[in-house]
Each structure stands twice: as C-alpha cells, then as structure tokens.
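To: structure desk
From: M.T.
Subject: fold request, one chain
Message: Could you run this one when you get a chance? Sequence is below, nothing fancy, just the single chain.
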Amino acid sequence: MTLRAVRADFIEFSGRYDLVVDTTNYVDAGADKYIRMGQKWLSRTFEIGAKNGIHYVTLAAGDWFVLVPDARAMREVWMSPNENGDKWQLRKLSQEEWRNEAPADPATINNGRPLFWAHAILRSVPEVQNVTTVARYGVVAYNVTDNHWAFNGIVWTPPIDRVTTLEVHGNFYHPELNTDGDMNYWTEEESNVLVMAACRALEQSYRNMQGMLDWESAIKSELIGAEFDLADDEAIGTTAMESTGL
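Reply: Done. Structure tokens follow.
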C-alpha cells in the first residue's frame, strides 16, 4: 500500500474526515502526522520490521568520520578498499578510548588502515541550527552543514588512505512517509497495524488513555505471531546459553 491508501484507511477507521481535504483524493489535512507518529511508535516498540540494515558509504582518502542517517543502533563497522575488495572489521572503542588513540588533529595524522571506530558525539552546546561539529582541535573545527539530531555518526583512526567502501551494520528506522506514493515495510507488510498505530496516536492526542491502551492491545495481538517468528529465526543455531562465568 502507498501512504495515500493507508491515509484513506485511517480516515475510515477513525472517522476523522476533517483530517483530509476530501474523500475522493484523500489529500492530507493532518492525517499524516498521526501516521508518522504511529510508525515511530511501532519501530521503537516492536522487534519486527526488517530492522537490521547496512549503510554503505564511499570514502575518499583522508576521511575519518561519517554521519549515518536513520540509525537506531550501530553494531559493526567494516571497510573494503575499492581496488582489491579486501574487507576487515574495525574494533569498537568508547569515546574516551578513541580520544586517547587519536589525540591530534586528523589533518596531522598519516593516512593508513583504520583499526578502531567509536560513536561520534555530535551535539555541541549551545546548539547551532544547521551546524554539526564532529570534533574540534584548538581553533580547527570539523563542521558539517546539517542538524545533529537527524543523524548518528562514527569516527575512526587513522584516516583512510584510499577510496574505500564503508559498511555500518545496525538497526535503522524505516523511511518516513511524506508523499502520497511513499511505501516502506509497515505500509507493505503490516498496513493494517500501521493504521491501528495511527489510531492509537489519535487517541493519545485526545488524552484518552483507555482508547490508547485498547489500540495497543489490538496491535500486540496482531503482531505476536511475527514476534515469535523473529525469536525462532534468531534462535536458530543457538544450542546452549552463554556461560556467565559465575
């Protein structure tokens, strides 16, 4: 289903015909806000939804950071030089460990084969709109013209020495639904659940806790089978619980 089709179903379910311009073309007049709220809640609440993904970036020689859109959790980072296809995994460091590994301005560090990565801290205080500072060394600031709240980011050391493909493995939000023809996992595989989640968001706006909880119960009932399937899939190949050493 497209966003327009989901919007039409939402209007029928909720009875809020004032949230569209008309019932011929179902042009948005406020409905999409609740659909987007519902999608965000679903993504944060349930494990299903093809949450795993890989973000690919082509790096140039000298690059040492990248901003990653729509990332919920970044678990692994791999690099693969374009000329030979060799691939290796970088070891994750804490921010403190990374600062100790790379205490100098990256412009002064010899390019090479990166071995470590860390989560970038992109929020600087006070915040400046449309400016994200990845790091600062004395008077040298590495800024990106974007708002930090739209991204996560990673840094590595040393700067890469050649054109390389970067892979960031993790959990990612699905694309936001903005135009009539937009589709994503929720519109295609669980469109009825997305409509229910939009209705839940609407009840929340009414401050109707019982109505909101009723929609949550219906949604959980719809998704319980898919959650079990995901648990079974992730359990395949696991034969014993990991020892805690206690």
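Reply (cont.): The beta strands are 52-59, 65-69, 71-81, 88-89, 91-92, 116-119, 132-137, 140-144, 151-157, 164-172. Let me know if you need anything else for the meeting.
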